[in-house]
Design brief:
alpha/beta
Length: 415
């Protein structure tokens, strides 16, 4: 497997002699054919800003490629962003000697070149189905956006989602206008965590957030208008807790009132909340008022790692556990949004904590989510690893071995 690199113009090349390397945690590994799959349709090759690739030279040693092969220009590391339904197994191997801030928040996966084709370190873990990119950003979307804005002219959420759908091309925002599948409605400006990889709010000295957080508190009527309309569609999911907002449980009174109005209008569809599950009283109350499903974001079932990544304010991992147990007792379908990262999530000590956590709480599904964050930035914040790296495929097999646990990438409608 040959090393791939890019020049300063973004043109990609395969190196004639250097072999491809991937990364897990702080360790580099030569990649074999068994580690890789052909680059799936919908993948996006990306340059690692300021990063020079690491490969294996003719002498069998890890080497840093700083210059283009046969040229004087700099050589940059290359990764790939995966389409929906694929889970990354290795990170790109690179060094950034002059880095002054973390990389942009993207899910970089290791790549290689073999016999005229690009390959990526990943496994397929779900079928895109409703999340196939070809089903989005269609030619009629602008017209559908305009029609909804005319239907609810004073609805500030509709106006915001219009920008999310057309400018950011957010699929859950677009589904509100398509009136189908999983549609997201942001409601909360505040959060009770400061996750290192938060995609809506970052400190100025860190990497820029790829999207902005909602800057107003919507009214109950604004939420109920859009939510009630969406739930009338067959097989729909209405989700609170989007990437462009804080923690939805902190707006539980607003959600509860809107939920009651929507459920008076229709019993159809699934009402879901994506949450950190730290605010246990709010989770308990909403589950008792008709919430159908909850998806809990989690990077680790170990207190030390959980606290250093999520940086919770006013709650801890025990609160998260109790929230999940309470939801399960009330008949709510609970998934984990497992923030998956090669060299972290697939370590021995993580699995020893995660599997019992799932069994004890009664979680019904694990949704694997490629964590978007600079590996150097992440691992310098976390405690030194102790156990062996088992590999992401081993992690997936271990999860599938838990009786009654579904493993995939996407939420499912419950009605």
């Amino acid at each position: 497997m040959r090393l791939m690199y890019a020049d300063s113009a973004g043109n990609c090349y395969d190196h004639p002699t250097m072999r491809a390397v991937g990364r897990a945690g702080e360790s580099f590994f030569e990649m074999s054919r068994e580690d890789l799959i052909a680059l799936p349709a919908g993948s996006s090759p990306v340059l690692i800003p300021g990063g020079h690739p690491v490969g294996i030279s003719v002498g069998g040693r890890f080497s840093l490629l700083e210059k283009e092969c046969g040229g004087e220009g700099p050589a940059y590391a290359v990764g790939a962003l995966l389409p929906q339904g694929y889970t990354r197994t290795l990170l790109p191997a690179f060094r950034r000697p002059k880095a002054d801030r973390p990389l942009p928040l993207m899910g970089y996966a290791a790549v290689a070149w073999r016999r005229g084709k690009a390959y990526v370190a990943a496994v397929r873990t779900d079928r895109p189905g409703r999340w196939d990119p070809d089903r989005y950003s269609t030619l009629d979307l602008p017209e559908l956006v305009e029609k909804l804005l005319e239907e609810f002219p004073g609805n500030r959420i509709a106006r915001r989602l219009a920008g999310c759908a057309l400018d950011y091309r957010c699929f859950t925002a677009q589904n509100i206008f398509y009136r189908r599948w999983e549609g997201g409605i942001p409601v909360s400006r505040q959060c009770n965590a400061g996750c290192l990889g938060c995609i809506s709010l970052q400190p100025a000295e860190c990497c820029p957030s790829p999207q902005s957080r909602i800057d107003f508190t919507p009214s109950v009527q604004e939420v109920a208008q859009l939510g009630g309309r969406h739930l009338e569609a067959s097989g729909s999911i209405l989700s609170f807790g989007q990437g462009c907002e804080g923690e939805p449980a902190l707006a539980s009174d607003l959600i509860r009132e809107a939920l009651l109005i929507m459920r008076r209008k229709t019993r159809g569809g699934t009402i879901n909340m994506n949450t950190n599950a730290g605010h246990t009283p709010a989770i308990e109350a909403l589950c008792g008022e008709g919430l159908d499903s909850v998806r809990v974001s989690l990077i680790s079932a170990r207190d030390e790692v959980y606290n250093l990544y999520h940086r919770p304010r006013g709650y801890n991992l025990d609160n998260v556990k109790e929230s999940i147990k309470s939801a399960v007792r009330q008949g709510v379908f609970v998934s984990l949004n497992l923030l998956t990262y090669p060299g972290l999530t697939d370590r021995e000590e993580e699995l020893r904590a995660l599997i019992p956590f799932i069994r004890e709480t009664g979680v019904k599904m694990v949704q694997l989510r490629n964590l978007n964050i600079d590996p150097d930035y992440l691992f310098e914040k976390l405690p030194p690893a102790a156990g062996e790296i088992m590999g992401v495929p081993y992690l997936i097999r271990s999860l599938k071995g838990v009786p009654g646990l579904e493993v995939g990438n996407f939420s499912r409608p419950l009605r």
